[in-house]
Description:
Elements: H1 5-14, H2 24-28, H3 43-57, E1 65-69, E2 80-84, H4 90-100, H5 108-127, H6 133-139, E3 149-150, H7 172-184, H8 190-193, H9 199-213, H10 236-245, H11 256-262, E4 263-264, H12 275-281, H13 283-294, H14 298-314, E5 318-319, H15 323-343, E6 349-350
Parallel strand pairs: 1-2
Antiparallel strand pairs: 3-6, 4-5
Helix pairs in contact: 3-5, 5-7, 7-9, 12-14, 13-14, 13-15
Amino acid sequence: xxxxxxxxxxxxxxxxxxxxxxxxxxxxxxxxxxxxxxxxxxxxxxxxxxxxxxxxxxxxxxxxxxxxxxxxxxxxxxxxxxxxxxxxxxxxxxxxxxxxxxxxxxxxxxxxxxxxxxxxxxxxxxxxxxxxxxxxxxxxxxxxxxxxxxxxxxxxxxxxxxxxxxxxxxxxxxxxxxxxxxxxxxxxxxxxxxxxxxxxxxxxxxxxxxxxxxxxxxxxxxxxxxxxxxxxxxxxxxxxxxxxxxxxxxxxxxxxxxxxxxxxxxxxxxxxxxxxxxxxxxxxxxxxxxxxxxxxxxxxxxxxxxxxxxxxxxxxxxxxxxxxxxxxxxxxxxxxxxxxxxxxxxxxxxx
Length: 351
């Protein structure tokens, strides 16, 4: 009996990739190019559809083209952008969390923020907006050197707040993309939200700029898909090894003196809770808190915690105060060590 076209279509939509039932170890040996992922039929497709509707409601003809790669990025001069492959399948999103302790763009809200941000870069390229004199007066020089680290001013009102860690402060092009993202976001109420902020002038300029190009075809149209997933031959194992290596190793940091101020190996405390297992139990909470404060990737914080736990076990340290007090003290210590040993005493934020 022949199946209808509708049932055949439904079957294709529900068909899972060949690697979906592999063990984690087997999955890590699969090459990125062999994942054969598509955006169609995923939650990511629905979010991109929402992005396009937001652009339509804003009266803009521009639609960025989007492809799968290893990260969110817009190549210089491109009118489209890449999104990370793990957002195209739940199994790969779970693997990303296991390997990196977080899923960038994993939630609907965070993903939409990132899609709008990258669209800001793409529309800037498409209409060559950064070449305008007024753009440079508002945001700064597009040609300013791009730094891998930056030290933000959290209290500054010259910049909008969209992505974490005051990303608008990192470079003029990021300042524009972040401002565009807030402008495009439905119900952002940016006029009221940024009332009396110097950043309001930037939003008003973007509003006028979008009115200027509304309905116009873009001056530049590209189709290149840089580092697209089918061209990448690294295995997932190799990909994650390289990704983790980008974050600073904490080996060689001296923890002992600081830990002895927090915990004790004196006989009088031998009945108290062991510090190593205590830190292990508190690991998720400490990692989350300190990452939020310092701007460091959770993987970096986790590596420091591992070393602290190993030293506590080796020195047989125990708590001297209540678990609640000790957890607060451990968070303060971990924050201090992160800022002091990794970045010279103050937080610098990685891109």
